[in-house]
Design brief:
Elements: H1 16-27, E1 32-37, H2 44-54, E2 58-61, H3 67-82, H4 85-88, H5 96-107, E3 112-117, H6 119-125, H7 129-139, E4 146-152, H8 155-161, E5 174-177, H9 195-205, H10 209-212, H11 221-228, H12 239-242, H13 252-262, H14 268-275, H15 279-291, E6 295-298, E7 313-316, H16 319-333, H17 342-350, H18 354-371, E8 381-388, E9 395-402, E10 406-413, H19 419-436, E11 441-448, H20 455-462, E12 467-470, H21 471-474
Parallel strand pairs: 1-4, 1-5, 2-3, 3-4, 10-11, 11-12
Antiparallel strand pairs: 6-7, 8-9, 9-10
Helix pairs in contact: 9-16, 9-18, 11-17, 13-14, 13-15
Amino acid sequence: MPSVPPSKPAEIVDRDREWEALRTLWGSAKPELAFVIGRRRIGKSFLLGRFARDVEGLYYQATRRTEAEQLVRLSHTIGEHFGDPALTQGVSFPDWEALLGYLTERAGAKPFLLVLDEFPYMSDAAPALPSILQSWWDHHWPNTRFKLILSGSHITAMRQLEAAQQPLYGRRTRRLALAPFGAHDVGAFVPEYDPVTRLESYGAIGGLPGNLSLLDPKLDLAGNAAALLLDPAGRLVDEAQHMLDAFLGDAVVHYSIVEAIATGDQTWKGITSRTGRSGGSLTRPLEWLIDMQIVARTVPITELEPRRSRRAIYRVTDPYVAFWHRFVAPLAAVGSIGLVDPRKLWNDAIAPRLPDYMGFVYEEACRLAVRRGQLALPFAPVRAGEWWDATSSQQIDVVALGGEREMLVGECKWGNVTARELETLNQRGQLLAAELGGVRRMHLALFSGSGQFDTRVKAAIEAGKVKGYTAADMV
């Protein structure tokens, strides 16, 4: 069993911070209880399974099974791991205490990793299991180097496991929350694509690694979209239509909310009007969608109490979901998918409308690039976001605030950026500065996905009066 934490394998894209956290967990001289959360297809299983393999740990992914079936399957996995013929040939542990006792004895004084992936399935089948783990943590593992990782896609259920009055409350030593990939990660999956096409791929396929891994680098974007989204047998042709089924028995209201937001109704008033439901009946489903990181609630960067703000807008977090509702669902509804050649659907029904859709995607990509420190900015931001006034008539796509009362404001366009946009941005920046109570210095930035700036804008960028960014800076 390796005592030196392993280096991150080349096949794992990004995830440097998460891998380093796992290395720290493995190298510690004490027991560890870590919670790993993240949406489905975000790469938790791949990351944890690979790390467990590298440290010769035990990885088990639960499914919807009874408690007895979970014990049988995990017993068999343990038997295979340790080469125990009795366990591999069908003898299983009688209960969880016997199973944990076997693992603890096998681990001895050495570090040992146990990963229980999709743990909410296990706790649903065996409600006493969290209490049993708490007992082992408190009474059997304090003087060991036992490393237990509980992981799950049901983010709400994972958070409830460590809530106050729950058995595992206060026991967690580490927590990893895996975020979706950004546009800058797409190149790892389709390295031959140019920056614009990478962004378009991000807009269509989204940021979940499990979806991006479906891209065939030998195909162009039209070919990939045709195969994945517009073919009846495509892996993503109906994923958005069923993405909540694993978590909810009745998700009609939740799907209605997602559809409303994805197709443009992003305010509370718009959502209630679109769904035809009263506000009271939507509050809990919307909060659940936010907690599950399917929907994001956003407020202007100037709001001092974001949770109480009435200026909130809502967005779906994954571009794939927005793309599916905007393009794929209407084509499926009229029977075009399965009737018309998939590549023809892309060329005729989607490609001509793609630039308009990409404006929204590019804005999100620019904000993410600022938050992640990808861009060369005039100062190091302490806050980043966007802004709109109380009437929503004035909006700034990108805002970054510095510790010395510096401010950067940016306008994002998928196509050409003109001097008129520059003038408007300057005016809106002054409004924002006034709402902030004044700033020491304001920087202007223009983002063009196509890399097109008119003559006056180019001159301003060359003179250092304005920052200019293109698709290449995002990816």
